[in-house]
């Protein structure tokens, strides 16, 4: 088998693994596992990000409406995840392939050291030909600590592991210019940097068991493509979908990747939620940073420094209109930065190697 990639992330949405009646679709799971096992056999490293814990839980236990949604989700996910991973282990076993369970929360991506520990765990699993099966740890991630959905988690893992491709499997063939249920709506097959923003076509409607919907899927796909990862959004209910995507034999939506970003930039790109401080920059600094030439952020272009941060922490860069233009790693702390505001001939606060601009996505 001729493979276009060495390492891929495959994200399977709840709907792909759930039948219309809400019960787990074990047959579909088995088919997906058999494709992954074949790809693994052919030398491709595959990381599965699988939703379905809540959907599996729903088939096992009913929760009274008197409980709040967080408690209900915890109960369903905690019981469902056991059955989800058991089914995966059983199906992979038939192909003499080992899989492993990795449950994560947004907090696990908080600092670079923690992030690198997690990356090392994936690397050792992959070196031993194990297929990691990842899901959000729904039992402990509540409200503000939650990922928007598993698409966001899959995007983070794709950039952390320097994957060449991210495949998002849902119950639609890709992004349509209109309602996917409307037979006349056209499928968008290619999205590149120069593609118009097509968000107006996408409704906030989600599939029966989905969490984020197509709007978040598109945002995540753009971000990953901006970091150099090819993204495929395709229908996980189509037979042999993974093999057909890799052989370019099926219509779906493909996001053309930009030049690959460095590992450090990939981490910064996803570290917005961990940012400690904010720096306001003037129009001149904004023009320099967003120009084609690689430029670092010098104190002469800084108008104000807000909140406290230490050297090595992530900071937000805002323009004069308070619009977020990017994220960077501070070369020194907020106290020193404040002393140097507006001064010439000072050391950059953010070096361009540790700067991630919104224009890069
Ligand atoms: N323009 C569009 N093209 C494709 N799907 C769309 C569009 N607008 C809204 N959707 C909805 O997005 C859903 C997929 O997102 P989501 O429910 O999060 O799926 P999953 O659970 O598989 O991640 C589709 O089932 C569809 O109903
Ligand atoms: N972690 C949850 C899945 C949440 C989620 O993102 O679902 P989906 O939108 O179907 O990918 C679960 O396993 O049920």
From TrEMBL:
<keyword id="KW-0418">Kinase</keyword>
<keyword id="KW-0547">Nucleotide-binding</keyword>
<dbReference type="InterPro" id="IPR001048">
    <property type="entry name" value="Asp/Glu/Uridylate_kinase"/>
</dbReference>
<dbReference type="InterPro" id="IPR041739">
    <property type="entry name" value="G5K_ProB"/>
</dbReference>
<keyword id="KW-0641">Proline biosynthesis</keyword>
<keyword id="KW-0028">Amino-acid biosynthesis</keyword>
<dbReference type="InterPro" id="IPR005715">
    <property type="entry name" value="Glu_5kinase/COase_Synthase"/>
</dbReference>
<dbReference type="GO" id="GO:0004349">
    <property type="term" value="F:glutamate 5-kinase activity"/>
</dbReference>
<protein>
    <recommendedName>
        <fullName>Glutamate 5-kinase</fullName>
        <ecNumber>2.7.2.11</ecNumber>
    </recommendedName>
</protein>
<dbReference type="GO" id="GO:0005829">
    <property type="term" value="C:cytosol"/>
</dbReference>
<keyword id="KW-0067">ATP-binding</keyword>
<feature type="domain" description="PUA">
    <location>
        <begin position="277"/>
        <end position="350"/>
    </location>
</feature>
<dbReference type="InterPro" id="IPR015947">
    <property type="entry name" value="PUA-like_sf"/>
</dbReference>
<dbReference type="InterPro" id="IPR002478">
    <property type="entry name" value="PUA"/>
</dbReference>
<comment type="function">
    <text>Catalyzes the transfer of a phosphate group to glutamate to form L-glutamate 5-phosphate.</text>
</comment>
<comment type="pathway">
    <text>Amino-acid biosynthesis; L-proline biosynthesis; L-glutamate 5-semialdehyde from L-glutamate: step 1/2.</text>
</comment>
<dbReference type="InterPro" id="IPR036393">
    <property type="entry name" value="AceGlu_kinase-like_sf"/>
</dbReference>
<dbReference type="InterPro" id="IPR011529">
    <property type="entry name" value="Glu_5kinase"/>
</dbReference>
<dbReference type="InterPro" id="IPR036974">
    <property type="entry name" value="PUA_sf"/>
</dbReference>
<feature type="binding site">
    <location>
        <position position="51"/>
    </location>
    <ligand>
        <name>substrate</name>
    </ligand>
</feature>
<feature type="binding site">
    <location>
        <position position="150"/>
    </location>
    <ligand>
        <name>substrate</name>
    </ligand>
</feature>
<dbReference type="GO" id="GO:0003723">
    <property type="term" value="F:RNA binding"/>
</dbReference>
<dbReference type="GO" id="GO:0005524">
    <property type="term" value="F:ATP binding"/>
</dbReference>
<keyword id="KW-0808">Transferase</keyword>
<comment type="similarity">
    <text>Belongs to the glutamate 5-kinase family.</text>
</comment>
<dbReference type="Pfam" id="PF01472">
    <property type="entry name" value="PUA"/>
</dbReference>
<feature type="binding site">
    <location>
        <position position="138"/>
    </location>
    <ligand>
        <name>substrate</name>
    </ligand>
</feature>
<dbReference type="Pfam" id="PF00696">
    <property type="entry name" value="AA_kinase"/>
</dbReference>
<feature type="binding site">
    <location>
        <position position="11"/>
    </location>
    <ligand>
        <name>ATP</name>
    </ligand>
</feature>
<keyword id="KW-0963">Cytoplasm</keyword>
<dbReference type="GO" id="GO:0055129">
    <property type="term" value="P:L-proline biosynthetic process"/>
</dbReference>
<dbReference type="InterPro" id="IPR001057">
    <property type="entry name" value="Glu/AcGlu_kinase"/>
</dbReference>
<dbReference type="InterPro" id="IPR019797">
    <property type="entry name" value="Glutamate_5-kinase_CS"/>
</dbReference>
């Amino acid at each position: 088998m001729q493979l276009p990639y060495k390492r891929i992330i495959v994200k399977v949405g709840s709907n792909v693994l759930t039948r219309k009646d809400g019960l787990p679709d074990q047959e579909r799971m088995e088919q997906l596992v058999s494709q992954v096992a074949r790809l693994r056999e052919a030398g491709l490293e595959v990381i599965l990000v699988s939703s379905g814990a809540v959907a599996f839980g729903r088939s096992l236990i009913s929760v009274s409406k008197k409980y709040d949604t967080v408690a209900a989700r915890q109960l369903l996910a905690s019981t469902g995840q056991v059955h989800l991973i058991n089914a995966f282990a059983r199906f992979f076993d038939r192909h003499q392939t080992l899989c492993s369970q990795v449950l994560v929360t947004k907090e696990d991506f908080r600092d670079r050291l923690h992030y690198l520990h997690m990356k090392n765990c994936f690397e050792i699993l992959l070196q031993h030909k194990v297929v990691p099966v990842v899901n959000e740890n729904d039992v402990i991630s509540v409200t503000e600590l939650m990922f928007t959905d598993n698409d966001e988690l899959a995007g983070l893992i794709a950039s952390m592991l320097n994957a060449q491709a991210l495949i998002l499997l849902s119950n639609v063939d890709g992004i349509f210019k209109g309602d996917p249920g409307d037979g006349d709506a056209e499928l968008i097959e290619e999205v590149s940097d120069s593609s118009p923003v097509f968000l107006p076509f996408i409704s906030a409607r989600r599939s029966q068991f989905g969490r984020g919907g197509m709007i978040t899927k598109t945002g995540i796909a753009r971000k990953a493509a901006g970091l150099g990862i090819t993204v495929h959004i395709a229908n996980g209910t189509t037979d042999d979908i993974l093999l057909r995507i890799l052989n370019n034999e099926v219509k779906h939506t493909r996001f053309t990747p930009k030049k690959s970003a460095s590992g450090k930039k990939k981490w910064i790109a996803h570290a917005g939620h961990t940012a400690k401080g904010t720096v306001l920059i003037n129009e001149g600094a904004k023009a320099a940073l967003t120009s084609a030439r690689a430029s670092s952020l010098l104190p002469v272009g800084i108008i104000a420094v807000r909140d406290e941060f230490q050297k090595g922490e992530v900071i937000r860069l805002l323009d004069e209109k308070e619009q977020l233009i990017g994220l960077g790693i501070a070369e020194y702390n907020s106290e020193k930065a404040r002393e140097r505001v507006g001064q010439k001939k000072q050391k950059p606060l953010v070096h361009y190697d540790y700067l991630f601009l919104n224009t890069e996505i």
